[in-house]
Amino acid sequence: MPEDEEAKVIEANLLKLAECEKSMDQAEREAEIYRIKKTQGIFRDRRHILVNIPNFWYIILAENDDFSDYISVEDLKYLEYIADIYVHYKVTDGDADLKNPKDFSISITFKSDKELVPNQTVTKHFEVEVEDGEEKITSEPVEVQWPQELGTINPHLIKQRKGKDMSKEDKKNYRLGMKSFFSWFSWTGKKPGKEFRDGEDLTRLITDDLFPYAVKYYTEALPGADNDDADTSDPEELDLEDDEEEEEEEEEEDEDSKRKPEDQLGADSKRQK
Fold it and tell me: Which domain CATH number covers 131?
């Protein structure tokens, strides 16, 4: 076959392959929309059940090592007052003009009888964009009422009070506040290094793991759950003195193994005496 004819054949087939790729993208989009719409109703029904289970979300969040990596120590006492977490996908609202059917919002409800954290439901909206073949999540900041006890590290209040005249202590508290879970609500994904760190990773943890598999995590955390990987030791019962004694014994054994045979015999004789 002449080269020019071969080139035309290749070009024609490449165009056909391009059409196949478009069809595949469309099929995947339709499948994603179907999956989201099908599961959203199930999650909605599940939500009505979960609100009747005391400390449901607290147990899940407190037991999850990944979640604790993204928040500050100061946040831990307030996890108990998270009464509801819900992920809602906008495509279920019938908006056909969405750029991406994966666009979503996360609603988090705080309820506290002790008024340690203001009672509120905060909904944060997210958009999923594709750049260079990779998905990227961005968001708009949303207002959240911080616990009064965290007022000294609330970045918004510090900036409001001090402006650019922040002392060394103010800057330290500001940086500490930016690591708080409550700063995640202001995260946008558009200002790297100047807002809550790892905001996208925490968002994905909630939407892709904690929310869809919440019941599994809860049942695994229940007392008596059949979990082969679970650590059955009680961290509050750890006897550090026993650990220290074991370490000392190991050190003595190491020293004995390093002695020369004649030294070892002498040492054994002394012990017998």
Answer: 3.30.1120.90
Residue 42's domain comprises 28-140+198-223
Query: 41-87, pLDDT tens digit by residue?
Result: 999 999 999 999 999 999 999 989 999 999 999 999 999 999 999 99
Q: Residue 136: inside a domain, yes or no?
A: yes
The structure tokens 């990987």 sit at 229
pTM above 0.70, yes or no: yes
Q: How many domains does the chain have?
A: 1
